[in-house]
Design brief:
This protein is mainly alpha-helical and 189 residues long. It is 66% helix and 4% strand. A two-stranded antiparallel sheet has the order 1-2. The protein is elongated.
């Protein structure tokens, strides 16, 4: 390990109370991850890893997901198509989607599902972000039912909040997605 790596490991050990040898073992498992990260310097001179060199699914989310959302928003597909696709993927009841996630009346959601009326951009973006989050969740939990169960459970990495309580906003969806990435890489604590 380089001097910088030893310094970072030392800082992590001090902040978390985890022995340096255990941190080194975890880092050695993620050598590819470590090598792809780009070391940058903040104005304060503090060393940090840049998110623009994230590997795997984290990079996919930050790049492809955003361009996919923009592309979908430009296409302005019908509400019924977007909602139908998401409901099939997520297996989320319409009432939960309407009241707890989109914060609209279930009758309004039914109008969007059954008519060719366009969803507001805000709701379309939220559904597209949810779709990306669900794809990752289903990849990790193997099916929508198990992922939905996790969404209703307290999550240590989210301050013991239920992920379902967070996905009513874009920021919350991104926090839940980041937690899924941590789970994928085994960094849940």
């Amino acid at each position: 390990m380089t001097r910088i790596s030893k310094h970072i490991i030392s800082l992590i050990a001090q902040k978390t109370g985890i022995p340096e040898i255990d941190i080194e073992a975890v880092l050695s498992e993620f050598t590819g991850f470590h090598q792809e990260m780009q070391l940058n310097t903040l104005h304060s001179g503090q060393e940090v890893y840049s998110v623009d060199k994230l590997p795997g699914s984290a990079k996919k989310y930050s790049g492809k997901s955003r361009s996919r959302v923009i592309d979908e928003l430009r296409k302005r597909r019908g509400s019924a198509e977007i909602l139908d696709r998401f409901l099939k993927l997520s297996k989320m009841p319409k009432k939960i989607l309407a009241e707890h996630v989109l914060e609209i009346n279930p009758k309004t959601l039914n109008v969007y599902c059954n008519a060719d009326k366009e969803l507001p951009i805000r709701i379309t973006e939220q559904i597209l972000k949810l779709e990306t989050m669900y794809e990752k969740g289903i990849e990790l939990f193997e099916d929508a039912g198990t992922f939905n169960k996790w969404l209703r459970s307290d999550s240590y990495g989210l301050g013991n909040m239920k992920p379902l309580e967070l996905i009513n906003s874009i920021t919350g969806i991104e926090l839940v997605y980041e937690e899924l990435i941590r789970i994928e890489f085994g960094a849940t604590a």
